[in-house]
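From: lab user (bench 3)
To: helpdesk
Subject: output format question, protein + phosphoric acid mono(formamide)ester

Hello, I'm new to running complex predictions and I'm not sure whether the block I got back is the full result or only part of it. Here's what I submitted:
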Amino acid sequence: MTTWTRRHIISLADFVPDEYNTVLQTAASFREVLSRRVKKVPTLQGIVVATLFFEPSTRTRNSFELAAKRLSADTLSFTPGTSALTKGETILDTALTYLAMGTNIMVIRHREAGVPLAIANEMDRLESQVSVLNAGDGQHEHPSQALLDLFTICSLLDPDLPRLELLKDKKIAIVGDILHSRVARSNIWSLTASGAEVHLAGPPTLLPKLFASWGMAHQASPVPPTSPEEENSPLPITHYPLPITQPKLFLHWDIEPALQNADFVMTLRLQKERMTQHLLPSLREYHQRYGITRDRLKLCQSDVKVLHPGPVNRGVEISSDLMDDPQFSLISQQVTSGVAVRMALLYLIGGGKA
Ligand code: CP
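Helpdesk reply: Thanks, we reran it on our side. This is the complete output you should expect:
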């Protein structure tokens, strides 16, 4: 493991393998702490962690708060509906208020891409030592979700030493509403960095053309028409720096080639709240063409596992019975992993020594 130098975690675009492995191995240590009778360590005593969630959340918010408490940090929880935002206070003034109260780590979720970065830049401009953790910003990124997905998969392959290299040449299908998915974007960075083959599948309206014209995607099918939402996407993926190695990223408008011999299938929620156009004929037809079912999993490796970041539209992107089947589903393990991984992130950016 290397010495951790990153103050903020906004995106995985520039994460290097050593950083991924440091997170995985630190999370494995905290998983051990969480298996003890007393699941608490004094590591972040005196540190104040504020969860500033301007958009709803169940998993991310609660697991960050639990992670902070397990590390003995003091926690502050912001709820927009009962805050001074309703009286016209700006987001930046809200962040400055938390800074003035002595907050050390701000965990920020917002429906607009770029808000966590803007606050991190302001904290740096003020020469404060505050760290900002992106807990999901619009359609941009959700780094802690992708890291807990990575930890869940790698822990399955080697529980004692989860590490990035375990995924080399594994086939991972990401299926569904990729256009609106910050989870997909962060996972593409982490999974391609591992050397895995990443196959994206979805209807043309939900699988952005920009992914195909990224200059590094190997097109498996003709480029679909650009959707109006994609044209207006706040952070076009072409703005990202290109990685050093050529990632193995494939696009499919049909689901079958993506699932063929896949080791892992990650299905994504249809984000109806972000759809301003009619991008689908019906949820029933979507399920028929792209829903993950037992029948469809027969195309995959026999020991295939299914992930979903949650929350799930049961019977739409995944059949309800499959979601609850422990033979295939890693969904509850993902939630459990979330606490250990978020403890690792708070510990590392909070100045803990690896
Ligand atoms: N996966 C995820 O971000 O879930 P929440 O919206 O419940 O935090």
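A quick orientation on your result: The chain has 13 helices and ten strands. Let us know if anything else is unclear.
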